[in-house]
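Q: Please design a sequence for this.
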């Protein structure tokens, strides 16, 4: 496989003008929390938004009244992970107290606990055959929607990321020296080993389960085409990629770690021999978080200076959402219906932006 490099693609978009109108001013609601925003999420029915904080609390905002932020004491220590639960009305949270908890407005209850371990990654898939997953050390624990333990998946080293496909049939787990790909409902758990030496720190899976991509410790991505195990190496980043995700139809992989949103094409046989698109850059500030819209090829990006914007891949148009100045963006998420965008920063600034037609 040849090695692809960022930096050789389309021209970067020009910097935003100083007088740019930011949507946060007219369509947003802001909150000033007193702790690092670790993650943001929306529950599956797009009625609630939540922010997990470094002080162990989860702040929940009903989208019918986004100015309200309900504080839920959740972990004895820091929150480490947050996602929508597979059951409506709540969220899953993992913490450094070894607890996996379901969080709802006004309460948090423990679903499972692993004393002495950190629950650093959580994931859930709703609908028929709904399941929940939590990574604690080398093990990934699976539960059904009722909270019953289904199985424990063992790995050679600590799990560093979880991802699934659009149907929730397969689960990808990144770890040292590669990733493991499991069938969630398999009667015999025999993972497909996706091997590549080195430290893999995050993972994404294409909606059709054809591709698995991990972020590496050395400012690069590594990918596999699942059907034949073909390797894909994507490098040239000036910083580590900490956030990555596929667009709704799986045609693009959006990534952080550069001064623009780097989007790798995954049509045909994947990105091998192709140049990525580099969108919405130009200010010499690193992209820290990306989030792909659940329906359209639109990407939200947060930057190290607090800037938040949207860009459409086809037109390359840029829509400014929030101005710089509130600290590095550390959390970014879309609601399942595509109406709301949530983001948070390392300084505790958090916001919800409503994109409903007016």
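A: Design:
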């Amino acid at each position: 496989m040849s090695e692809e490099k960022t930096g050789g693609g389309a021209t970067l978009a020009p910097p935003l003008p100083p007088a740019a109108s930011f949507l946060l001013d007219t369509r947003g609601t802001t909150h000033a929390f007193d702790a690092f925003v670790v993650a943001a999420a929306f529950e599956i029915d797009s009625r609630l938004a939540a922010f997990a904080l470094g002080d162990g609390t989860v702040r929940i905002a009903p989208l019918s009244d986004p100015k309200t932020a309900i504080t839920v004491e959740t972990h004895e220590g820091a929150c480490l992970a947050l996602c929508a639960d597979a059951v409506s009305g709540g969220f899953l949270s993992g913490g450094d107290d070894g607890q996996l908890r379901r969080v709802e407005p006004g309460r948090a209850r423990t679903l499972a606990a692993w004393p002495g371990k950190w629950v650093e990654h959580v994931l859930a898939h709703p609908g028929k055959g709904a399941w929940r997953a939590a990574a604690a050390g080398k093990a990934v624990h699976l539960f059904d929607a009722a909270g019953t333990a289904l199985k424990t998946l063992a790995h050679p080293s600590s799990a560093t990321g979880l991802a699934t496909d659009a149907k929730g049939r397969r689960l990808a787990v990144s770890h040292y020296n590669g990733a493991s790909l499991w069938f969630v409902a398999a009667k015999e758990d025999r993972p497909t080993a996706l091997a590549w030496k080195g430290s893999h720190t995050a993972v994404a899976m294409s909606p059709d389960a054809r591709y698995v991509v991990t972020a590496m410790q050395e400012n690069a991505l590594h990918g596999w085409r699942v059907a034949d195990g073909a390797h894909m190496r994507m490098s040239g980043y000036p910083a580590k990629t900490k956030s990555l995700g596929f667009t709704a139809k799986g045609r693009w992989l959006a990534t952080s770690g550069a001064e623009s949103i780097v989007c790798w094409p995954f049509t045909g046989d994947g990105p091998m021999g192709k140049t990525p698109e580099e969108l919405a850059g130009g200010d010499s500030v690193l992209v820290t978080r990306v989030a792909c819209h659940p329906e359209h090829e639109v990407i939200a990006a947060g930057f190290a200076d607090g800037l938040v914007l949207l860009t459409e891949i086809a037109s390359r148009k840029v829509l400014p959402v929030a101005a710089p100045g509130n600290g590095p963006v550390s959390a970014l998420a879309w609601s399942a219906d595509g109406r709301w965008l949530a983001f948070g920063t390392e300084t505790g600034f958090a916001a919800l932006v409503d994109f409903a037609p007016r």
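Q: Thanks. Anything notable?
A: Residues 75 and 215 are 28 Å apart (CA to CA). The longest strand covers residues 107-113.
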